[in-house]
Amino acid sequence: MSSPIFEKSLPSSANIHQHRLSNGLTVLIRENFANPSVVFDASFRAGGIFNQRKQAGLANFVSRSLMRGTQHYSFEQINEKIETIGASLGTSSGLHFAGFSGKCLAEDLEGLLALSAEVIRRPTFPDEQVELLRREALTGLARRAHNTQAIAALNADELLFGQEHPYGFSGSGYPETISAMTRQDLQNFHARHYAPQGCVLVIVGAIAHQQAVAWAEQFFGDWENPSAPEIVLPADVAPPAQVVRKFYPIPGKTQSDIIINFLGPRRSAPDFQAARLANSVLGQFGMMGRVGDIIRIKQGLAYYVYSSLTARFGQGDWSIGAGVNPKNVEKAIESALHEVRRMTTELITEQELADNKSYFMGSLPLQLETNEGVCGSISNLFVYQLGFDYLLNLPNLLNQITREEVLSAAQKYLTPEHCVITIAGSE
Amino acid sequence: MSSIANITRTTLKNGLTVIIKELHTAPVATFWIWYRVGSRNEPTGRTGISHWVEHMQFKGTETFPGDEVDKEVSRNGGQWNAMTSLDWTTYYQTLPADKIDLALRLEADRMVNSLYKPDEVESERTVIVSERQGAENDPFFLLSQEVEATAFRIHPYHHQVLGDPIDIETISRADLYQHYRTYYCPNNAIAVLVGAVDTQQALARIEALFGNIPAGNLPTPFVRTEPPQRGEKRVEIVGDGETQYLIVAYHGPSANDPDFFPMIVLESALSGPGSLNQFGGESSNRTSRLYKALVSSGLAATVGGGLYATVDPYLYSLYAIPVSEVNVEKLVSVIDQEIERISTELISPAELAKLHKQAKAAFAFSAESVSNLGYWYGFSEILADYSWFTQFLTRLEAVTAEDVLRVAKQYLRRENRVVGTYLAQGANSSEEID
Predict the structure, then answer these.
(1) Interchain CB contact of B81 with A (< 8 Å)
(2) Where do the domains of chain A lie, and which CATH numbers do they carry?
């Protein structure tokens, strides 16, 4: 990061070409002619946040259906178009956004962008494909029901946010919601929520920005859907009144999974970076941070143990996870909570503060090595409204963080007397 | 010293193979060290020892104490990890290029100076038990384990890299240390450096750090060749859950066999470009014959294949997960029909052309990441030499439809395979799904 050459190569307002189509879609391009490939990524306001629990999984089902047939192409034709050029194109959906992403040789970009516009704008949801997807989804959910990690995590979110809260139920849905979804539901959701305004298409790689803009205009420029709703964030929830602990039996498992779940900051919260630093100290830095040091290295209880902070538009969550033998569940929870209490009662050391700042800055070149890394980073700058010079300013932002701020963020969010603990495994 | 595609390859006096590739597209560098030791070198009673040694190599030396070494890499913004496989064990660090010297010093040091403290051997024993128990939670692991054990009665590819639980319980500190000292020596290793470095400076630095490590006395390789299989073998696992799993594994050629490249083409047409995806591609397999026959037809939720490049002949494995109301034997019969077709009819020019384009794209994508290139140069050296990777496209383009037909007939025979099924006790009984 100290190198001026690297600073010059960071995505910033100086090298991100910005263009706004008349329909409100923002196109961001970063040229990179070092390799002959291009990646792109688009996000639309069509995530699971627009679903109620009784329709859990709808946004995801819609996203998975987009490539199953369009006005001009069948599922088979779409796949032939992608695979014959060695490219990839996929659709995905998350809590707030849904979108598409692709990768190809620069020589094939025009065709792949045209196809992306076709699948996102003109899907037909053929009955037969919807039924195939439904069966695949139900098989996936049957597998999930026997996956200790998935069940512990799923229920940890539900207990923390509540059954009806869009952060509390599953984005992939449940057997009963997936079984009940109709083709009409899919069509309606698509028609209502997929729209260009306020959304972003990022293109990174061996393509001149003028050409990329021309294609974006050509394929997306005449797309209008002005009545699509904006995201309304759900109200924040309060931490549980006490520790909520629940066990989910899954027969035949040799290992149990534990999740300890706390509420976390929004991405826009002033203390987000301090909380991120606390999370790194607790369960990321080196070999899985302090919890890794005690639970894996010293006690030898777990192959994996970590702390993970999920920041989003709305309230985030902060969780500690571990996979352990059923007989070690209590000891692992006790050790993890001990480390949580330490985070909330003692300042981290000067060394830890310096180390983690250095880690955050030092790892940027690795994150930004590939076109995918740059593309994802630019997309985040836009979506979270961080400003295109955010990465240039990051050293200052990090340097200002004090040990007291880290302690205060830990105290605010890590509340060991008010958390959710889920355990999934054999009895 | 030789140089192809601007790759410098040389061997130090102590036998260490060194490969350096300058790549200045991003300010990063990666350093990999590969040892020719894996689960194939493990006798009965010490299965899993190569993997455990890999874990112990993170426990530190006098110069780089264990709890400091992770932090040192992190505070420099680096990533590091290690992998153990059938034929090899490898360690890598990817760092900002101006910090890569740390990786060179770490690896030179732990090639000889790891401590293997008895209390750390014991705490790592339970970590490995936990790693294995986590793997056993997955029905697919349980089934793969049985299929591989059934396919290899003689050859050490029969056991899992993680080792058998009884051996994890009984391997001693002395066993581990001996394994380490036997196989971790420069004449059994390959060092690969890729990234924004200067080749001559880097080579001088590697010579300075590694050049004085004495060569070791490697044991004569003890490999028990697997005899030809004389009939289809079947293995069944019964377990919890609602989902059935299928693996159909054919004995295949080694990576150095002339048949290996035709097998890659065969794999691509039948189950999708799996081997190519390992180069950094992300192609889906939805135009492959088995996807169309099994998934598009509504019988399976997923299907795929894996052809592994190995020193000795290993397996080409097909796997599938039926949707809830379909019996796993139905999938076997559909696979048989597709195998029959590919063993009697030439694949189409369009299928060949598609594969060539996929390979070209996958290779272009692979060059974007120094870590990816470091992996492939080293891996290729383990199998043959780095030209196995650099010549990959040329060799693939030389494969004809007749070659594919020939290898299909030779390898995809019923008597040459193991069929493994995981039968879920709760299958077809889910009221929620019906």
Answers:
(1) no
(2) 16-220 (3.30.830.10), 244-425 (3.30.830.10)
